[in-house]
Amino acid sequence: MKLPKINLLTRILIAIILGIGAGFIFPDAMARIFVTFNAIFSELLGFVIPLIIIGFVAPAIADIGSRAGKMLFATVLIAYGMTLFAGFSSYFVSDSLFPSLISSHVSSAIAEDASLTPYFNIKIPAIMNVMTALVLAFTLGLGCARLSTSALRNVINDFRDIINLVISKVIIPLLPIYIFGIFLNMTISGQVGSIILTFAKIIAVIFALHIGILILQFGIASLFSKKNPFKSLATMMPAYFTALGTQSSAATIPVTLRQTIKNGVDEDVAGFVIPLCATIHMSGSTLKIVACALALMLTNGLAYDFSMFAYFICMLGITIVAAPGVPGGAIMASLGLLSSILGFTEADNALMIALYIAMDSFGTACNVTGDGAIAQIVNRIFHQRGE
């Protein structure tokens, strides 16, 4: 009898529970085996991050750039604007609420002087830094969009497929073991209680925040469509709940498309905007990453300011383009920015992964539901059945 497949969220939750439990019973010698695994896995992540950026961003830029047209430009601009809107809203709300909810100077990472150290480590230097990877991705993408030959485009598409395989066949399957090791070490070092409490507070705030973002997005769309924003949002609920179940923007496209048309959007406009936004509109993902990052910085007692997060949000909206097609793709693509801009450690990044995946379905639901709001705006701009 074939056993049912366990989804990633369930595996992460099991890893967290087992890691906490093992922290109370494992001897140090056994626990250090997992600490050693984590050290090597972190090196692998560091090596792969620039490749993820190139593999995701370059093909996406090439595809967008090659599809000339005013509607394409307008859709991309609005989608990026909505993503930035969600990111900055998340920052301001989190900056207002989190300082009173989260105790400062409670380390969310395994400290450098923690009692457990790996038996050994294997250094795997990245071939380039994050900013170099971003510039190279844009250069390749824009170059492919301008060239008439398809040879280079085929190469970067194949490279994207290779990176997808690395994430889905190597990184994601090993991720629960990595999370297990992080929580095992935190339990042994006495930090896990504060972390779990922090997790609960962050998740509650982000859940409320993503509902508020959707209401605001449809409120903005109503200024163009002249439709009741709450009625339009209610019409999109089948797409929202489908995304909760599938955890995939791409898999939800048929439902999102159907409900968008029911909201009065022309079929041709909806057929163009919805599949495109499933790739480039990342409001829910950006919202989660920004809120979680700020919370962990407060937990660590790290200094931050608006200019730091403004830069981070603007870069994040570009870096995670095309990431929804890969499980955990958005958070994987953002790890380089978290380290290079916000100064996150490897253990901080591990906690970000755990937090993000714990809310993955809500972020996807926010993304696809917001696609309907963007379609209403584009529909009105181009005077297609704008009632």
Which characteristics define this entry?
387 residues; mainly alpha; Proton glutamate symport protein; 78% helix
What is shown here, in short?
With 387 residues, this protein is mostly helical.
C-alpha Rg, in Å?
Answer: 21 Å
Question: What amount of the residues lies in strands?
Answer: under 5%
Determine the number of helices (DSSP H or I, runs of at least 4 residues). 15
What composes the largest sheet? Answer: none
Could you explain the architecture of this structure?
- The chain has 387 residues and is mainly α.
- 78% of the residues lie in helices and 0% in strands.
- It has 15 helices and no strands.
- It has helices at residues 8-25, 28-66, 70-101, 130-146, 151-188, 192-225, 229-235, 237-246, 249-262, 267-280, 283-300, 306-319, 329-340, 346-358, 360-381.
- α8 packs antiparallel against α9.
- The model is unreliable at 104-114 (pLDDT under 50).
